[in-house]
Amino acid sequence: MNTEKGSISIHTENIFPVIKKFLYSDNEIFLRELVSNAVDASQKIKRLASLGQYQGEVGDLLVDVKLDEAAKTITISDNGIGMTADEIKKYINQVAFSGATEFMEKFKEANDANEIIGRFGLGFYSAFMVADNVEIETLSYQDGAEAAHWTCDGSTSYEISAGTRKTRGTDIILHINEESSEFLSQSRLQEILDKYARFLPVNIRFGTKTTSEPDGEDEEGKPKYKSVEVDNIINNTSPAWTKAPSELTDADYLAFYKELYPYSMDEPLFWIHLNVDYPFNLTGILYFPKIKNELEIQRNKIKLYSRQVFITDEVKDIVPEFLMLLHGVIDSPDIPLNVSRSFLQADSNVKKINNYITKKVADKLQEIFKTDRKGFEEKWNDIGLFIKYGMLSDEKFAEKANEFCLLTNTNKENYTIKEYYEKVKDIQVDKDGNIIYLYTHDSAQQDSFIATAKTKGYDVLVLDGPLDTHITSYLEQKGGDKVQLKRVDADVIDKLIQKDEKQELSISEEESKQALSIFEKAISRPDMKVEVDALSAEELPVSVTIDEFMRRMKDMAKTNGGMNFYGNLPDNYKVTVNGNHPLVKRILSSTEEEGAQLAKQAFDLALLSRGLLTGAALTSFVKRSVEMI
């Protein structure tokens, strides 16, 4: 073959600086691109052989990555389809785009170069981000083909001549520049290959590694092992998501989870195998981890692949926000990517995939609930937060989740939203026909309020999760005008669910005013509004409550960072003195000093039951209690 020189067919001398500076967000991508190209070449020869267009031996397909630190080179070799000199001119020398002038004009005006470059196939040229000089040694699979050698120093000039390769395939040799010396490291290349190539469909070899293998038995009959050097194959060519669900066992799914997250301590609760080929192609496995009541959990656990090439773990455009709590893999060749294969581009398929995944997750949860409700309830503490998050953020998911979202009461009984409505609609109804759902956010601290509610035959829900402040509003909204949620400590129970029958005070109006004056002096706090009310004699003598609306607004301000007006307001409590309790009559008949002490003691007991008695006030209460015994 005669030596031939020429110029790469592009229309501006500035194309290489543009590629080097803007094509990829991270220089390490060069290795992914070149290894992926080598895999493509390997897959092509396999395809040609299956079609009868290649009669030779395909052999064991392998992509070999070699590092020579002394020579400062990285070589990516394959035994794939190879290229002729003419094919090098066609595929390498011509940078394909619709016009350099138009490209550069758009580039100048655009803030996001990735969007522009994303229209053009420039993967091979990522090599020049890290290399001063790039060589290609290649031999085509075609009968009678001659080996070819191509070299380029990063300018628009190239040289093509006779090559030295004796077997089918291609070597890409990168002469690494000074600025990219970090890549002349065995550990750095291993890290990049582990990240991007661990599930490619053709074996990727990167040197060798030391392992142990059986070597007979010792004198005591115990097995011996010896160290051996073996090929360091860095990838699993047939990951679980590429197989049909019928081919996999639970053990296979769990093993793949461990492969994805080797440092995870917990096994997933269950999983969904995605497999669709119309109107788009999508495969994958999504795992439900144990979430519990933790909003501050690590995200970016779902990995996006395209034909088994890792793209990114930033999948917020494909996966709804609430599903970001899941773990796993999504693989789709139909997700639109820019040329760097690092960013999504706007496309109708993205929305379709988003909707499909949401539907599949909802269907899976519904299926588990219907077929194994007991098992579903056992997992509720681990998945409840995830389901509530979905209901609050995605209307389509919420439509289905209404059928399997569980409400748990203080007796640890679980009900669907509809079941709970049926449970309380005839009992917990007030004089105006409102159906009142009572709930607690802290069963231990609010035990006295819960106990009082239960003496009335009422049920109390436990809503103690980080999203439950918002769930209360959701339940009211979905329950219609007549459903109201009230925290069990928001008022005395007879005020929370007011009936037609009205309690009468057993003390006179004058005595009521006197009792009010005594308690106001004993309490003497501007954040406490005192009132004397007619309650059952079995109720507590003093109750401390906070208004439901104000407390809920303040809780929402804490969880979502908004509603600062409410969040900045001070806490204001209501102190209800039970005018029918024997203690009040005793206070009224006592001396002024004794009455004040009894009032203060009753008030402090109410504070103590709410966890509001602390510091010096608690010390004083304990001392006073000892003196009164």
Structure notes:
It is a single chain. This protein is 37% helix and 22% strand. It has a nine-stranded mixed sheet, covered by helices on one side. Strands 10-11-14-12-13 form a five-stranded mixed sheet, sandwiched between helices. The chain has a three-stranded parallel sheet with strand order 18-17-19. It is an alpha+beta fold. It has four domains: 4-206, Histidine kinase-like ATPase, C-terminal domain (Heat Shock Protein 90); 240-375, Ribosomal Protein S5, domain 2 (2-Layer Sandwich); 405-502, Rossmann fold; 503-546 and 560-629, Heat shock protein 90, C-terminal domain (Four Helix Bundle (Hemerythrin (Met), subunit A), Up-down Bundle). Residues 96-121 and 338-343 have low confidence and may be disordered.
Structure summary, number of beta strands: 22
Indicate the percent of residues in helices: 25-40%
Largest sheet: 9 strands, mixed
Q: Order of strands in the sheet with the most strands?
A: 1-6-5-4-7-3-2-8-9
Q: On the 0-100 scale, what is the average pLDDT? A: 84
Uncertain runs are 96-121, 338-343
Domain Histidine kinase/HSP90-like ATPase: 26-180
Pfam families: HATPase_c_3, HSP90
Keywords: ATP-binding, Chaperone, Nucleotide-binding
InterPro entries: HATPase_C_sf, HATPase_dom, HSP90_C, Hsp90_fam, Hsp90_N, Ribosomal_Su5_D2-typ_SF
